[in-house]
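#structure-requests
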Amino acid sequence: MEPMAGHWSLPGGKLEPDEDLPTSARRQLAEKVDVRELSHLEQLSVFSDPRRVPGTRTIASTFIGLVPSPAEPELPEDTSWHPVARLPTMAFDHRTVVDYARNRLAAKLSYTNIGFALAPSEFTISTLRSIYSAALGYPVDATNLQRVLGRRGVITPTGTTAPSGRAGGRPAALYRFTDARYRVTDEFAALRPPT
């Protein structure tokens, strides 16, 4: 809509009189992008710059919501997923909101088990490495990831293996997250990009 027609925006809308903020966030996602199931939802921040949108002052209480994998919502025609590393031009301060969310997620991947909200129920270390690399924005070493998450008790081997691929070879071990509830695993940890 004007004055930002042609720019992409995050889903959102007004808070209804009978709902709290998390309920509103869930409703907006269900109505606007057909996301009806979230594996994790938390308040991200409040954006209140008086110039963030033209016209009537609008304060945005933002949330980060993680969609369980695999999820395939039916998106409306005017909606699309975009890789965070290659976002199109965004409306208002929405790019700032996305950057803030990505930084928050990267930090939480360092000191919590929040990866459970991004991964399928069972996964190979290679799949988990891909998820962490995408979320962090830099390559993650699979061996180090397995060692760190295993030492913290975040992931557990299932005792089964994935089916062999077309190239054959030894089937990869399958893992799962030990807990499917958010918890701090190492409050002083920090994952850092390779030097």
